[in-house]
Amino acid sequence: MRKLKLAAAVLLSGLSSLVFAQDISGIWQNIDDKTGSSKAL
Questions:
Q1: Which residues partner with 30 through β-bridges?
Q2: Local confidence band at 36 (pLDDT 50, 70, 90 cut-offs)
């Protein structure tokens, strides 16, 4: 019974990190290594 509770706690904590993760969608910028300025959005 104790192992079941531990497994459930690990599973729930792992799933909660997925819920609060940031989206990867958005505005991405390409930065030029030499000049440091943005090349494209």
A1: 40
A2: confident
Q: At a CB cut-off of 8 Å and minimum separation 6, what does 30 contact?
A: 38, 39, 40
Q: 19 with 12: CB under 8 angstroms?
A: no
H or E stretch covering 40: strand 38-40
> If pLDDT is split at 50, 70 and 90, which confidence band does 41 have?
low
Two tokens, residue 25: 């969608």
Beta-carbon-side half-sphere exposure of residue 7 (alpha carbons within 13 Å): 4
| Side chain identity at residue 32, one-letter code | D
